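re the bet — no i am not wrong, look at it urself. input seq straight from the record:
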Amino acid sequence: MNNWLFGRDQILEIIKSLEKAKIDIIECGYLELNGIRNEHSTRFSSINSFEDIMSDVSPEIVNSQLFLMIDYKPELPFEEIPHKNNTKGCLDGIRLAFSKKHYKQAIKCASDLMEKGYKVCIQPMVTSSYKDQELLDLINLTNQLNPFAFYIVDTLGTMNNEDVERLYHLVDQNLNKSIKLGLHTHNNNQLAYSNSVEFLNIGNDRGLMLDSSLYGMGREGGNLNTEIIADYLNKSTGTSFNLIPLLQIIDNIFK
């Protein structure tokens, strides 16, 4: 919508507000690796460029973990990502999204990122396009790796409650219990909220994660709204997300 050009001051204000709202994990942008450095963009050309911006506010981030997203492509220079010990330590983890044709290479990349000290979320895009055996193979590879989280990803926004339930049970029954199970929704059919609530209601003794974005801002149909799901969680599960900073950012920046 804005070519990632939020502006440096707005980037920092959004991250600080998400921290004040007690959001567990804040995805701060897109790690492009071979991109052009621009301090006003949330497409970061390196972890160093991300940390240069974050150094102004990182001491204030005490409740939230900070992540970046990588859209896996074989040609990306992953070797340029430094070990976490060789950075300022601002970045906690990486959300690694990948297409089905690259899932085996992406798992190897995830292993390398974990060896470098980062938490990794495994996100197979268009998860519903995997045949059951393909998904079980990916889950088996994930179990060997034991990453931070594994996701069901509705990239095209076409899944309904029944799809969520079927994939939840398939993944839950085969994924190591120590690995969190997440859902990443898109709102093309206006079902991101409904599917997310269904996902939570199915949940058992496993750690669950939901991806969301303020004001639902995201590609095409957008994503699950952070302010809406946070309000639902406060009312239904007794969480204590602070909604005021979220609403202020929507009014003052996003609109």
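see?? The chain has a mean pLDDT of 94. told u. also The chain has one domain: 8-254. so pay up
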